[in-house]
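Lab meeting minutes (informal)
Scribe: AK
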Amino acid sequence: MAKAAMEKENKELERLQGVVSRYCLSLTKSRVEAEDLAQEAWLKAMDSSQPLEHVNPDAYLLRIARNTWIDRVRRQSTHMRMLEAVRQSAKHHAMPDDSLIGTEIAMQAILTFLSPLQRAVFLMRDVSGYSAQETALRLGLTAGAVKAALHRARAALPSVRQAIEKGSLKAPKDEGLRDVLRALAIAYDSGDIEAMLTLVQHGELEPAPAIAVLQSRRLRAASTSIRRGKSTPSMGIAA
């Protein structure tokens, strides 16, 4: 009897997991993010009570998943507004004849106040909208390390914004660093997350290696395109 009851409970749990997973996928439109959301919803449900003991476990779990998703979207919206405020502040200091200068200033502030890891996580999570698991996989980290780095990056954003608004950042004297900032601005405007990650994961005092790595990666991509009979992509880096 006990074995039969356990098998019945396991089947019900499997059914509920399927229901929650499909619902999370319908919300997020991303399989990786859906798995992350479903896991968080289950953890919240287990913390409060046993889902199977609820009168309507399906509705109970889906409500938790929906509320969790709403909280995530609200947090992401808040941080995106914060990022936009940083960029708008940067544009205030930009010269009329160069729209990239404002972005360069914002990138300089990010390089100044965030560590290489924090920059990479911030760009992937808050700027490009990657999930924690996707970011962890791309950067070779645990999900916990990603969350910790993102928390520290977000905590530094007020300093980033203040530096931009006050115009306290000095123009970089190093030509290599200027190249990095220009390359970052171009990569940002074109949505090239791979180029941004290559550049920001090097220390701000190591501009030459950063540019060299980026150039090498793009040269390999260009070579591959030629072998496949495609046109050579633009290098996209201003001197």
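Next up, CB showed the second protein from the same session:
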Amino acid sequence: MSAVTSEVREDGICIVTMSHPPVNALTVQGWFDVASALDAAGADPRVKVVVLRAEGKGYNAGVDIKEMQNTTGFDALIGANKGCYAAFKAVYECAVPVIAAVNGFCVGGGVGLVGNADIVVAAENAYFGVPEVKQGALGAATHMARLVPQQMMRALYFTAATIPATELHRFGSVYRLAPPEQLLEVALEVAASIAEKDGRVIRAAKEALNGIEPVDVNKSYRFEQGFTFELNLAGVSDELRDDFAGTDKAKK
């Protein structure tokens, strides 16, 4: 069963939902499923806007480290890198605007999705972070830099600290805050204000805004991934992932 489902409503809003308990840490296939859902939504002439949301206690906890630890060789690592790249790219290049409706925690790969979204709506208790340095990987700095100022991004990246949605709202990168129980309602309200417009104009506007971006997010993220491969080849990543997995198991 796929961790990603998609529903196209009569008003032109497509709701894409991620659900992979317990923490929405997506497998390799899960990341490609996100990409496929966004690609399909953009290719559907009925769709004017996408709401990318999640079920459960958090929005996204990044890649499934357990899958990586239980796979010999580098297949899972390469798959996760390619899957994340495809998913982030699909969000950014979706032919229609993508609204990220963020509940709870949004870390690692979750920031990659949200940072490439057009609009972010978040629950008042949501928080964001890129803890990659603790696990011997790099990535999503490209996307965190779209949510916070440069020095703030570097501080969050080096310290692996998190930042609350309320702060991102102050920076302007979170468009609307909502009580957790009203998150989808608020996201759909924002989506409806887009869906009422002419779809041809909305699609042209999305393409135009992407065309004037000062940073090529796809190339920037791919550059980051190169350092993740270096750390893996050096054995650093395995060591830190083993420590993380051991700590995680101890908690359970």
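CB comment: The longest strand covers residues 13-18.
No objections, moving on.
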